[in-house]
């Protein structure tokens, strides 16, 4: 279960006052009935706040696969290849291209 913004703020403020993770967990359970939190979660939340200055999810919007740039040059190349060959699969071409790209990448290392 993901903690709410209120709950995360409570963890950070309470830990900064008390400096004891076990007591923070007990106070959290008293204040937010029906919700429990692990010691590791308290530590991670406090560390994230002290290092990054936020309690929010830093990965939001940055997760998932990366997209290649859709420049006009690439689009025209794909259209011409599809027109030239009826059996051409754009997905297969992408797999071949990525395979070649990885090979070139590791050659330079």
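^ Assign residues to that structure.
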């Amino acid at each position: 279960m993901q903690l709410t913004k209120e709950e995360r703020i409570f963890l950070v403020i309470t830990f900064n006052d008390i400096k004891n993770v076990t007591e923070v967990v007990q106070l959290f359970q008293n204040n937010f009935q029906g919700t429990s939190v692990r010691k590791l979660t308290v530590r991670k939340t406090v560390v994230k706040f002290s290092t990054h200055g936020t309690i929010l999810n830093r990965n939001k919007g940055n997760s998932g696969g990366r997209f290649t740039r859709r420049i006009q040059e690439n689009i025209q190349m794909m259209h011409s290849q599809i027109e030239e060959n009826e059996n051409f699969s754009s997905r297969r071409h992408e797999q071949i291209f990525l395979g070649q790209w990885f090979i070139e990448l590791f050659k330079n290392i």
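The chain has a mean pLDDT of 78.
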